[in-house]
Amino acid sequence: MHLYNSVLIYLCGMYGIVDCNSFYASCERAFKPNLIGKPIVVLSNNDGCVIARSKEAKPYVKMGAVAFKNKNDFKKYGIHVFSSNYTLYGDMSSRVMSIISKYVDDIEPYSIDEAFFKLKNVSGKEAELIGKQIKDDVMQHLGLPVSVGIAASKALAKLANNIVKKYPEQTQNVYVIGTDEQRIKALKWTRIGDVWGIGRRLATKLKEMNVDKAYEFTLLSDELVRNKFSVVGLRLKRDLEGKPTIGFEEVHDKYMIATTRSFPNVVSDLKEIEERVATFANSCAEKLRKQKSECSAAYVFLKSNRFGKDYVKLGAMVHFGFATSSSITITKGVLEKLREIFKVGYTYKKAGVILVSIKPNASHQTRLFGDENPKHQLLMRTMDTLNDKMGQGKLKLANQDIKRTWKMRQEHLSPQYTTRLSDIITINCK
Amino acid sequence: MVLTFYKYESNGFVKIPFVEAGIKAGFPSPAEDFQGKRISLDKELVKNETATFYAKVDGDSMQDAGMSDGDLLVIDRSLEPQNGKIAVCMLDGDFTVKRLRVDKDGVYLVPENKSYQEIKVGEDQELVIWGIVTYVIKKV
């Protein structure tokens, strides 16, 4: 078994994961190095609540803490507060991804601050050198600290990364599970609930079976795991045994596109909500066209204030009957459904549109009856080109308020250092 | 006799070769074999795309090095700081751009304007070399 595993490691190459440490806070620090070592929090859209914390802020602020209720604590502990600057984070993220791809055979961006990668035909030593090179390059080029975990499978790479997070000094932010001994040691160290892909529900179920550590999970028989946790559980077990089973996702396009927002104030007027939802639907459709996809259904929802007296959550699916990327079709369908689900007499705080059943538009299934009006495509292309040239929102659908531009509350927004010339850093030469 | 039926599968694409020059019956363009790529400042000024950032100059302490108030700097963070290079530094939390001088006494930040004094980085001061300036772009 020992020999078998190590041979496998060698033949199949290795998997790794790069994870940016406190990514949002680190992006802010990259352009304000004086904040290195200081506590930072980043707030959600509209400055509602805390969505990211630097290591230094963790003892003082809870994740999801409501911003205005914690104002005093922010001041008291000298915490630097930022509105989320997704333009900046997105650009830094794509820079990180391109640096990683210089060194690896294959890369799978996993989230804005994480990416899996694959190395073919490397020894553990070589893999470690590559991991270090990635870490050093990202730091030198972008000023962002990252953790790198490398092992024979994706699940084990995640585990190696957890070890890095726990022991940053000893590992120097890079750890390779290169031998079977190291693998078993790591599995014995890891609580089952901390294994990638084991949700809270599964963890409870496993604890009931006296499985406490990841190692004990790998000792269960394949049949038992399959019966109790389906093929997904079995795949995970194989992965943890060092037999890479969880592959790379081929699809890089998003299969769900959403625009959801809290309103700055509560809204009870249907007309006003219609305008908002139309804007959300239009923005989703734009994203859809940008990635050259189309969708055949959408979900629209409306929520009242969660802390109010009468909490309502309304939502429904809209089926367009054919695949479309037209703002007109999508917005029209979504608004019709909104009017159906809307209830008078409530004050609403949040609304959103989520596009589902997304496919690339190259594979469009033409329908004899009820297909998209072909004129829409041309119209949308014109609209996108104009908006691209003259600034977002120059051309709107008539169900969006022309004069109104909804501004998010972003009182602590940092500049778009990397994507807007007027926002670049200024250097004092006085 | 057993008949096996195969379903026709199409991936929706038919590849057709694209002849860039077009097919014409007339005289071929003599310029065709000499077509060059257009000049791209991006390619010229940006050697390391992921590590390149821009900054704006505020002040005249580097005037003699050709950096005036309002100029645009191209900064490459992948370059190692070296003696004699012009670097964007953060000294005690403030961004500044100066020429680096490293000798046995220590690190100096040297302005390029006679009316400014050079700065010796003290032991209790914090210096972060943020990136190396590679180009200055000025509006004429």
TrEMBL record, chain B:
Keyword DNA damage: yes
Record-stated family: Belongs to the peptidase S24 family.
GO BP term (any one): regulation of DNA-templated transcription
Protein name, entry field: Peptidase S24
Native source organism of the sequence: Wenyingzhuangia fucanilytica
The entry's keywords: Autocatalytic cleavage, DNA damage, DNA repair, Hydrolase, SOS response
UniProt xrefs under SUPFAM superfamilies: LexA/Signal peptidase (SSF51306)
Protein's UniProt keywords contain DNA damage: yes
Pfam name, any one: Peptidase_S24
GO molecular function terms noted in the UniProt entry: DNA binding; hydrolase activity
TM helices/strands, residue ranges: none
CDD domains according to UniProt: S24_LexA-like
PANTHER family in the record: LEXA REPRESSOR, LEXA REPRESSOR-RELATED
Domain Peptidase S24/S26A/S26B/S26C: 18-133
